[in-house]
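Budget justification aside, the reviewers requested a transparent look at the raw inputs and outputs of the sequence design task funded under Objective 1. We therefore reproduce one unedited record. The lines immediately below are the structure tokens for a 287-residue chain.
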């Protein structure tokens, strides 16, 4: 046997050992990578959920009575919810599709006063597909507690403090007096609340922007004119009151060509005085 044969044999032997070691550890490595991806997805979903979903579904998915159902609940993960609505697919697909396309006001198993808005860009919403997937992963992670028969729902202390100190602005368009508004924060709120999904990105509601209006007027200009129009039957006496009425008393006056009951009617319970003032300040700047 020549020295070349010896070297080749040793090289083959060492290569076999390396490949075998790699193959043995590959499943664990892949599982670690998948777990890392899933964790990052849930973390991203948690941020999106906190910014967009807590006002209706609660900071811990506990739901808000009379507004939106609980998500962190055994009935979602034991099949009760999807049976009620007649869903034949998987729970994960149900959650993903509901976030993407929303749910109509009148549908099987729906007893809530407002429709679930669309969130995916595919349906005119503000979230990309990967963001919808991340929120789905975050919601689905709550199901692990019910798989382990741990059914208690506990909000952390900071969330409870936030809920206790929260004071909704209410539906009176004259009181309480609103503080000075921050239009930049108002613009951020219109995105996080999902307002842009209907009022800018689709034709569901009157567009805010002048370029989307047949007369070339933004909502700031239209608000100054509309409460003076002959068909206006609301209570507002100026543009600020008109916008406040439009946000917290959505069905008192409905613009011609649109149906009542489309816009979410619970912002009086969801917004603080500062939130509402910021949104109005932003809208008034859209001339």
């Amino acid at each position: 046997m020549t020295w070349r044969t010896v070297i080749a044999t040793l090289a083959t032997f060492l290569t076999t050992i390396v490949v075998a070691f790699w193959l043995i550890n590959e499943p664990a490595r892949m599982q670690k990578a998948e777990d890392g991806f899933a964790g990052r997805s849930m973390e991203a979903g948690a941020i999106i959920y906190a910014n967009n979903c807590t006002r209706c579904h609660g900071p811990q998915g506990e739901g808000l009575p009379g507004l939106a159902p609980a998500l962190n609940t055994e009935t979602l993960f034991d099949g009760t919810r999807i049976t009620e609505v007649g869903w034949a697919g998987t729970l994960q697909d149900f959650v993903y599709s509901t976030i993407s396309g929303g749910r109509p006001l009148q549908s099987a198993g729906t007893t809530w006063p407002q429709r679930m808005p669309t969130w995916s860009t595919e349906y005119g919403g503000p979230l990309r597909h990967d963001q919808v997937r991340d929120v789905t992963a975050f919601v689905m992670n709550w199901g692990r507690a019910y798989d382990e028969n741990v059914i208690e729902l506990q909000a952390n202390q900071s969330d409870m403090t936030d809920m206790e100190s929260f004071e909704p602005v209410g539906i009176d368009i004259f009181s309480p007096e609103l503080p000075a508004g921050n239009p930049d924060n108002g613009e951020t709120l219109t995105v996080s609340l999902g307002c842009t999904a209907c009022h800018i990105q689709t034709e569901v509601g009157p567009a805010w922007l002048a370029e989307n209006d047949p007369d070339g007027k933004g909502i700031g200009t239209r608000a100054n004119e509309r409460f003076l129009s002959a068909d206006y039957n609301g209570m507002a006496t100026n543009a600020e009151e008109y916008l406040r009425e439009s946000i917290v008393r959505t069905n008192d006056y409905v613009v011609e060509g649109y149906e009542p009951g489309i816009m979410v009617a619970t912002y009086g319970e969801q917004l603080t005085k500062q939130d509402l003032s910021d949104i109005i300040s932003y809208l008034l700047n859209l001339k």
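The chain has a mean pLDDT of 80. The longest helix spans residues 3-52. Computational costs for records of this kind are itemized in the attached budget.
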